[in-house]
Amino acid sequence: MSILGLKKKQPKTFKVKVITMDAEMEFSCEVKWKGKDLFDLVCRTVGLRETWFFGLRYTVKDTYAWLKQEKRVLDQEVPKDSPITFHFLAKFFPEKVEEELVQEITQHLFFLQVKKQILDEEIFCSPEASVLLASYAVQAKYGDYDPNFHKPGFLAQDELLPKRVLMQYQMTADMWEEKITAWYAEHRGIARDEAEMEYLKIAQDLEMYGVSYFAITQNKRDTDLLLGVDAQGLHIYSPNSKLSPNKSFPWSGIRNISYSEKEFTIKPLDKKKDVFKFYSSQLRVNKLILQLCIGNHDLFMRRRKVDSIEVQQMKAQAKEEKARKKMERQILAREKQMREEAERAKEEMERRLFQLQDEARLANEALLRSEETADLLAEKAQIAEEEAKLLAHKAAEAEQERQRLEVTAMKTKEEKRLMEQKMREAEQLAVKLVEQSERRLKEADHLKQDLTEAKDAERRAKQKLLEITKTTYPLIAAYSTPPAPPEAADLGYESASTRLDFKDSDMKRLSMEIERERLEYMEKSKHLQDQLKELKSEIESLKLEEQQQQAGLYGLQSEARGYVQEPVYIPHSNRNSAYMSQMAFFEEV
């Protein structure tokens, strides 16, 4: 085996990853490819013809560099990773975007890059301009504003404003969205490419637009400064101020820029002006500054010359493309308008159709109701006729009932007369009983008085007898008088007791007579009360029957006449007053 066979085979290709502003691409490149080969491949893939604005940028340690087109890719200080990562970005910026950016893809890539730089605060933007730029970004993304589709909160996931602006004001996300939407609604009818161009036209007037900043020091005094390189020329800034340069050197006023290791020399076109020198400590940064100065100066000189045939063709094609797109948009707008009008007409026709259908349905319902009403009226007429016949029959029955009730009323009157006679007799009997009861009460009072007097006389007699007895016996004993014969004493005692017994017998007899009379009086009173209760129940039954008869007669008469009146009760004042007085009198008795 030869020594050559032991050598490891070198790969013929290497992997490359290119990141644009809106996509990522991977390529397999040959080892011998130069930077121009890879750059042209990316441009063809993207469809970009304005290649002089762009480049492939890669990261080297703590800075960045642009891929050189005349050297092989692998011979440059590119990362050794696999795949090697490059960013396809705008390296040079135009002075006037509307005049220089021809292709739509070029405008779109610039729009995305400038938008990212503003959101990342690499380009300073005031809050008012930030809101206006955000509204054009929303128009480019969502098209015309439609309140039915773009509901509140539809921008919640979009990053539209720099964080510095959001923190500068105490406003909620909904308040910012409301402000942006107010501007967004005014951009109706602007196409995506037009919205992106309006965005770039506003952004190109910002102080930090298209400026690449580098840290430098001045020659004699070791003062820290910032060098800014853009499409207009070179600018010197203070470290704390990137907005207003301290000194500017436009490309038209620079005669020569020389570079020697770390020293840069700017020679003005006017020889009377002083030469400006500055220093940069990093070699890679110095090379990058030189590349940007050469590229921006070349584009500056190119803009002031007649466009090349290629650029003229591109502009002509772009003009035709814009005219064609404008025509298409106009046609589309007309078609959209016609479609909206047709939809409105369709909606109007549908609404009219629904209205006619509703009217027809209501008419059918009214017709059905009319037919039902006619049937109901016919049925009611038949029912009314039957009711008339029934009322005539009831009227005849009522007339018969009235005649019967009249007869009954006559009988009732006779019964009432008899009842009144009975009531008068009962009243007379009650008066007699009252008089008799009063007389009996008086007699009872006299008897009670006599009884009381008898009892008092008896008590006095007994008291006197006791006194006589007590006084008699001591006298006999004192005078030694012989005692009276026992017969005589017994006789006197018997006479006294006889008188007492006589008095007791009279009292008992008198009490028995009074008790007997009281019992007789109670029996008569009870009998009289029973009679009064029977009489009262008979009167109540007669009154109830009379009322029922009158109500029945009145109801039949009302039905015969076809209407009902409330019954009128005619009070029998004389009869009722006499009856109530008698009842009160009997209850007192």
UniProtKB/TrEMBL annotation:
<dbReference type="InterPro" id="IPR008954">
    <property type="entry name" value="Moesin_tail_sf"/>
</dbReference>
<dbReference type="GO" id="GO:0005886">
    <property type="term" value="C:plasma membrane"/>
</dbReference>
<dbReference type="InterPro" id="IPR014352">
    <property type="entry name" value="FERM/acyl-CoA-bd_prot_sf"/>
</dbReference>
<protein>
    <submittedName>
        <fullName>NF2, moesin-ezrin-radixin like (MERLIN) tumor suppressor b</fullName>
    </submittedName>
</protein>
<dbReference type="InterPro" id="IPR029071">
    <property type="entry name" value="Ubiquitin-like_domsf"/>
</dbReference>
<dbReference type="InterPro" id="IPR011993">
    <property type="entry name" value="PH-like_dom_sf"/>
</dbReference>
<keyword id="KW-0175">Coiled coil</keyword>
<dbReference type="InterPro" id="IPR000299">
    <property type="entry name" value="FERM_domain"/>
</dbReference>
<dbReference type="Pfam" id="PF00373">
    <property type="entry name" value="FERM_M"/>
</dbReference>
<dbReference type="InterPro" id="IPR019747">
    <property type="entry name" value="FERM_CS"/>
</dbReference>
<dbReference type="InterPro" id="IPR019749">
    <property type="entry name" value="Band_41_domain"/>
</dbReference>
<dbReference type="Pfam" id="PF00769">
    <property type="entry name" value="ERM_C"/>
</dbReference>
<feature type="coiled-coil region">
    <location>
        <begin position="518"/>
        <end position="552"/>
    </location>
</feature>
<dbReference type="Pfam" id="PF09379">
    <property type="entry name" value="FERM_N"/>
</dbReference>
<feature type="coiled-coil region">
    <location>
        <begin position="315"/>
        <end position="464"/>
    </location>
</feature>
<dbReference type="InterPro" id="IPR019748">
    <property type="entry name" value="FERM_central"/>
</dbReference>
<dbReference type="GO" id="GO:0003779">
    <property type="term" value="F:actin binding"/>
</dbReference>
<dbReference type="InterPro" id="IPR011259">
    <property type="entry name" value="ERM_C_dom"/>
</dbReference>
<feature type="binding site">
    <location>
        <position position="287"/>
    </location>
    <ligand>
        <name>a 1,2-diacyl-sn-glycero-3-phospho-(1D-myo-inositol)</name>
    </ligand>
</feature>
<feature type="binding site">
    <location>
        <begin position="68"/>
        <end position="71"/>
    </location>
    <ligand>
        <name>a 1,2-diacyl-sn-glycero-3-phospho-(1D-myo-inositol)</name>
    </ligand>
</feature>
<dbReference type="InterPro" id="IPR018979">
    <property type="entry name" value="FERM_N"/>
</dbReference>
<keyword id="KW-0472">Membrane</keyword>
<dbReference type="InterPro" id="IPR018980">
    <property type="entry name" value="FERM_PH-like_C"/>
</dbReference>
<dbReference type="InterPro" id="IPR000798">
    <property type="entry name" value="Ez/rad/moesin-like"/>
</dbReference>
<feature type="domain" description="FERM">
    <location>
        <begin position="14"/>
        <end position="304"/>
    </location>
</feature>
<dbReference type="InterPro" id="IPR011174">
    <property type="entry name" value="ERM"/>
</dbReference>
<keyword id="KW-1003">Cell membrane</keyword>
<dbReference type="Pfam" id="PF09380">
    <property type="entry name" value="FERM_C"/>
</dbReference>
<dbReference type="InterPro" id="IPR041789">
    <property type="entry name" value="ERM_FERM_C"/>
</dbReference>
<dbReference type="Pfam" id="PF20492">
    <property type="entry name" value="ERM_helical"/>
</dbReference>
<dbReference type="InterPro" id="IPR046810">
    <property type="entry name" value="ERM_helical"/>
</dbReference>
<dbReference type="InterPro" id="IPR035963">
    <property type="entry name" value="FERM_2"/>
</dbReference>
